[in-house]
Amino acid sequence: MMPKTNPDVIEESGFDRAAGAIPMAVDLIRKDQCNDIKATGSAVELITINMVDAVIGPTCSSAAIHSGIITAYYNIPTYLWGMVASHQLADISKYTTTTRLTADSAELAEAFVAFMNKFGFDRFAFMYILRGQQKCKYIGDDLKGVIENTTLSDVSMTYSHQMENSSAEVISKTMEAAVKRARIFALCFANDVDRRNFFLVIHDMGLHTDEYLYVMLDTRGFGFGQRAKSKEFMDATGTVPLYIDQSEKPDGRDQDAMAAARMAVSIDFDATTSAGDISDFNKKVIERIRGWPFYCTECNSSDVAATYARYLHDAMYLYALALNRTITKNPLNIRNGRAIAQNSNVTFQGASGEVIFNKERQREAVFVVMGLNGTNSVVKFSTLKRNQTGNMTYYPESREKRIWDTRAGKKPRAVPLCGFDGNSCPEDPIRSPWVIGAVATGCVFAVITVFTSIYICWHKAGSESSRSLASSTMSVATKLTIETELESEFFTLYYLSGEPVVASKHHIRLNLDKNDHADMRKLRSLDHSNLNKFLGLCLDAEDCMYMSIWKYCSRRSLQDVFLRESITMDSFVMCSLMRDILQGLNYIHNSFLEHHGHLTSSNCLVDDRWQVKLSDYGLEGLRKADRLSHKKLLWRAPELLRDESVFGTQAGDVYSFAIICSEIMSRKPAYNLDSRPETEEEIVYLVKRGGNTLCRPSISNMAEFNPAFIHLVRDCWSERVRERPTVDQVMKLMKSIVPNSNVNLMDHVFRMMESYADSLEHEVQARVRELESEKKKSDLLLYRMMPKQIAEKLKMGSSVEPETFESVTVFFSDVVSFTTLASRCTPLQVVDLLNRLYTNFDQIIDNHDVYKVETIGDGYLCVSGLPHRNGDRHVIEIADMSLEFIASLQGFRIPHIPSETVQIRVGMHTGSVVAGVVGLTMPRYCLFGDTVNTASRMESNSKPNRIHMSSEAYLAIQKFPGYTTESRGDVIIKGKGVMETFWLLGKERLASFLILTFPDGFSRMYVLFPVCLRCESTNYRIPFDDYDKYVYFDSFIN
């Protein structure tokens, strides 16, 4: 049952655009090898002669609801397709013989609610246009039924309206009312024109901003597309984007429709199948309506198949499957609708996608959410389907934010921030009287602070000592040039007299007296290979009070070195770094400074020679005022954490050195916070608290270090200050623990580099040999796939232009009775047979100037004379190869059928061809021209183990003596008419002479008469004089 003339539904399920799917399904049924084929075919034939055993349709919900009751009464199976979406038909207690192939609108409603829940939308408006189908009415009714079920969701429908048509007046009036109640709009349209008109209207109304979301609900399986009305617009899937105008006179507003559609998504039934299958199916539907069983020559007012033609195909095919299962169980139930319906619960891959049924014999629906992405391409955002508990669930296709790409990643709100009337905006906190008062008070305080600071600075500028220091440092500052990209909160890179320097910022202002000046002069005089040079103090910094200037080390700090995971160190390098730190500390402890007080891995700098230099020493007055972060306190000794009045001690430096050693040994930051649950603040607290369980970095599992050295590090961070060794003691212990400690680090590095270079050279050579070996393998494989000359051009990236060859000989062969042989073999045995046969042939080809073009099943195609031109020899190359092919089959046996022999038919023809490379994926070197077709006809008209050749090949081979041929006479060749052809019988080689000279001074000449391939004669050897004396030479001559 399907409509024939109703204009409202003819494009969706009309007779002349869909009925062609029925004979296609019947063809598939007849080819189906599952269960009893004959019984199924008989049942189909009964249907075609109007003895109604089943009802396929109707295609509209209202008609299906009534007809379903009637067919249940008469116990006739019913298969529903088309626009049948009503949930009423899911009641199998009422519709006992009904099975539906399309999606249930109640499941579509559940999918929409799952979409709303996923993104936290709690309200929406529903608008639809009917146009006589009533599909959208049933979708709306089921949508209301689902949202009224409070167990599923708290989503509410705040507005619902049926639009009479898609005119601008009707849509604008509806939207004016809808926007007062919703920002999420669920839409259902009877046809694609109405949907496009809707988007044009909301574009004109300015309702296509990211504040609005339009969700189109449908069950056709078109997603974000529309049905193509002609082949002009159709893509491989039979659809075009919904914003395209397909009318005969387009309005030119596709861009406006697309701009509005960017704010929309579609939720539709997933009828996924390959694009090629859809295109081929639609083409056959149009063709088959004119053939059996309809023979409707006046049909097909359109060249595009109906929307639901694929569902009609699957309905017919499902009925046949169910009927086949039913009569297999009980042949008497051939017209038992309830039994057939129960047997319809099968799963198969149909034209409309994978068909699976639930317990109510309703198709299990999978829905897809589709829309436009940021580049205006139609994409699938997610899938909506039931999970294991039976609830409809949202499964994103990829990253979830992609669905909002057209909105700059911004998700719309179900309720505007200021409400639908714009009068519910939250109060602006800036306008609060308390905030205004606080801001005014702050401004007054800021003004007072600024004037006070100016007065203090002016007063201090009068100090002679400050004036003196400032004047000296001002001259330094004039030479500084900032390098802004290396600036941070604590450091800034400058250039002093062309040399890079680092300025450490101190956010404090102190009165510097004569003692401070003296200490700074002493600091500048400190000079040691493991100390970073102090250059002076700058007093006119812009963003801070003072800046201490230090030399710049190119590799920065140890902390930066640890962050670079690509750097590898052995134990010698690490011990060398530790030794440099100890030597720097030892110098400081024996100087006027007596201690560093602020030692961390961030102020252990590394120069370009991998030498550690301690920085940030001295300037105790400035550093006491600096507020240290918890991160900087990770290196501070516990006794100094407890007594903040003490800046530093020598024992505290030893403790800090031990923490740095743990960083060097593990190549991780202090305490490796990424692998610990504690924060920096918590670790500082635990260290400060002390106790029986001490909080220290982990240095276990350090197999590359001497256990004695690990104990030394633990002694250095001992909780008891008196138990910690001095720097001098640590240096002596390290010298006894670590061998070769006097070796220069750079010498060690150079030796490592030489060793690495040698091993790298050997490895490179080995890799090069492997590469060359693999290249030879790949080249060999490539040369087997196409001629060497062509392969070389492709490897060089050159294009291979098609080329005409005036004279070549083409060879075709075919295995005689191959189908019969194959039927007696398993598939694996067939493959083994062909592999052994073609391997035999391939070995023969290697001995001739012949190119193997391809094998198709048991067919074998070769050519000589291209791409390497060989004059006129191509015909004898093919002839010799053909003779050897047939000769080789005399000893060829099939392992699993040893009694059978293999015979081939051979055809050859000489003429011109065009050859060229075809395709990008798996390119092939192919032949084109009538010569190929003629050679194929020679083979198909040949006889077992005979070589059939055309007159052109016969004339070509006459240029070469020694070949035995025989005329076959005139033969009728398909597509060619009457042709005179010939048999190639064999080759009679000319006698050859062999002259041998022996030690006795005699020479002998032998005349060799080789055997004719098809003769019974033997080789004759005729010596010019006595033969018996040299009989032993026969074996050599053979």
UniProtKB/TrEMBL annotation:
CDD domains xrefs: CHD (cd07302), PBP1_NPR_GC-like (cd06352)
Enzyme class: lyase
Domain (Protein kinase): residue spans on this chain: 430-751
This protein's record includes keyword Nucleus: no
Membrane disposition: Single-pass type I membrane protein
GO CC entries: plasma membrane
Record EC number: 4.6.1.2
PROSITE patterns (UniProt xref): GUANYLATE_CYCLASE_1, GUANYLATE_CYCLASE_2, PROTEIN_KINASE_DOM
Keyword vocabulary terms for this entry: Cell membrane, cGMP biosynthesis, Glycoprotein, Lyase, Membrane, Nucleotide-binding, Receptor, Signal, Transmembrane, Transmembrane helix
One Pfam family in the UniProt entry: ANF_receptor
All copies of domain Guanylate cyclase, residue ranges: 809-939
SUPFAM superfamilies according to UniProt: Nucleotide cyclase (SSF55073), Periplasmic binding protein-like I (SSF53822), Protein kinase-like (PK-like) (SSF56112)
GO molecular function terms listed in the Swiss-Prot or TrEMBL record: adenylate cyclase activity; ATP binding; guanylate cyclase activity; peptide receptor activity; protein kinase activity
Single GO biological process annotation from the record: intracellular signal transduction
Family indicated by similarity: Belongs to the adenylyl cyclase class-4/guanylyl cyclase family.
Name of the protein described by the UniProt record: Guanylate cyclase
